[in-house]
Amino acid sequence: MNEENDGIKIFTDFANRYNNKIEDSHTAETFFSEFLDKTKDWVNIDCLDADNDDRIECVDFDHDKGMMRLCTRVPENDPKIRKMHKMTHPYDTYSFLIRFKNIHFIRINNGNCIAIVVNGYTMNQKMIESFVEEGKYTIKSYDEKSSFFTSNLVRTKNNLSEYIRAMKTPITSFWIIPKILSISAYDSKKYLYLYNNDVLGERLKNCLNKLSNQIGKTKDKEEIDDFIKMYGNQIRTVAEAFFKLVTCFYNLKNKKKDYNKLLLGDLISPLKQNVYTNTDDDKSRLNKIAQIANDLSHDTGLPIKFEDIGELYINLMYYILDFKQKIYQMIYYNKLNVPTKPSPKDYINKNLKTWNFKDTITQTVNNTSSCSCIYRLRINTDFKIMDFFNKNADYLCTDGYIKALKETDMSEALEVNSKENVIALIEAINNKVKSDCEANGLDTELAYLSWDIDIIRKSKPSHLFTFDEIKNLMANADDSKNNKLVIDENGYARIITIPGPTYLYPVSIETWCASKGYVGQNSSLSDAEPAYHSCLSLWLDYLNTDEKQYDDYYKQIDVDKTIEKIKEHY
């Protein structure tokens, strides 16, 4: 492994083989056996507390207890070498202890895998001590306060000592990277924070999407209330995990409570005093997050409102995006050793309603051809927080301005009649925004408008996709690329390569990763039937609601009954 690409290639080969994720400990054990044989000492283990090590000596599992022990140093056999070794490393063995959950392979835009993260469940002191004492070990010291992420202890047996870092939180706090990348432990720490922040953002979006889909399927008030409370509790857990992450980032240790015992109120109070101190808006947002989350978690007897979930989501997403920018700023500041350019966020929010894109629309949109649907461009709520739960949203209008429109009055909204026009218009607008931000000395990394697209059918669908059509599409797809199955507005199944404009199709399912045999001439096409079932179910949901549908889980359905309901819309 003398060249940079060799290390990345090995990581990418494993990511391909295991489809980017390992979810059971037996498969993980097989993976590590192969991984250690391939990599030897050509890896770094970098941790969120900026510590690191440079190799993995061995990995062992207790499958019954779900525990994984990863050793970075093991005892030297030669007594003389062992004595010399202890001059710099006082213990014979150094290890991580994880209550195994899963392994994720982290890819960059070109598809290469550049990191492997091991995720675990929470462990408390009693659980940790019980496990490490097995086999007649004696615990000599136990430190639960020096790190947010680990309980650090020393155990001994037969005159040998082991220093263990027990990963006590569900936050991903270390990852394995190719040594050849030469990422410093300090930079690696920041990228790990970004990884955790992005994971929590995706969890938050998934909660809201699933809640919206469930509510769209029933009119029973009691059932709707149950769904709101269930997903409200899930959003609360995301909120607690997120604010724990921010607490760790700013090193705001709680002297009275261990990290894992901190609740939402324990987390928010010091953040208001030490981090979010600039505006009354922060105080109001944080108080609202705590109040709504508590109301949803307890049986207060108060009415349960979908709008409360919306407000909780909006406020949490605001802080997740804000935290992401703070991490980027610290990365770039330390990387360049100079202050970064100011963020474009406030500038874009300030100018969003004053910019005029009339010339851009004229130059890029050709609405002379006929089409079975139209597209409206709406500002994505993840960038410009808006009160979309009150049915107001910011749309691009025919006069070139972005305006807040009510759901019941879309007369001013620009209507574009082809996917090609939408793609060209978004690119042209974002280029204009980037140029404007650059001219004002702002950082261009986030200088764009994030759009979502409303798809409005003008006529009934002309076709209903079939199982054979989906099988044929899969068989002829290029397995060297990431592929996604979508259904267009006319009811035709299509496969598009990722990244691609999935936002322009009313139905889509989970991406099939490249080189895994899901598609192509040599594929068994085992996903064809479950994918067909899922698409039928999602297509019916779209026809019932006129809202785009996505799901990453396959569904088993009664095909004949579903098709019968679908045909009522034709």
Q: What's the short story on this structure?
A:
This protein is α+β, with helices and mostly antiparallel strands. Helices cover 42% and strands 20% of the residues. The longest helix has 31 residues, at 185-215.
Give descriptors for this structure.
4 domains, eleven-stranded mixed sheet, four-stranded mixed sheet, 42% helix, alpha+beta, 570 residues, 15 helices, disordered N terminus
List the helices and strands and how they pair.
Layout: H1 4-17, E1 21-22, H2 25-39, E2 43-47, E3 52-53, E4 58-62, E5 67-73, H3 79-88, E6 93-107, E7 113-120, H4 125-132, E8 138-143, E9 150-157, E10 160-167, E11 174-178, H5 185-215, H6 221-249, H7 264-274, H8 280-297, H9 306-336, H10 345-351, H11 358-364, E12 373-379, E13 392-396, E14 402-406, H12 419-439, E15 451-457, H13 467-475, E16 482-487, E17 493-498, E18 507-509, H14 528-545, E19 549-551, H15 559-567
Parallel strand pairs: 6-10, 18-19
Antiparallel strand pairs: 1-6, 2-3, 2-11, 4-5, 5-6, 6-7, 7-11, 8-9, 9-10, 12-15, 13-14, 16-17, 16-18
Helix pairs in contact: 5-6, 5-9, 6-7, 6-8, 6-9, 7-8, 8-9, 13-14, 14-15
Q: Explain this structure to me?
A:
It is built from 15 helices and 19 strands. With 570 residues, the chain is an alpha+beta fold. The chain folds into 4 domains: 4-183, no CATH class; 186-340; 347-457, no CATH class; 467-567, no CATH class. Strands 1, 2, 3, 4, 5, 6, 7, 8, 9, 10 and 11 form an 11-stranded mixed beta sheet that branches. A hairpin with a 4-residue loop joins strand 2 and strand 3 (52-53). Helix 5 (185-215) runs antiparallel to helix 6 (221-249) and helix 6 (221-249) runs parallel beside helix 9. It is globular, with a radius of gyration of 26 Å. It starts with a helix and ends with a helix. Mean pLDDT is 83; it is low at 1-5, 335-339 and 382-390.
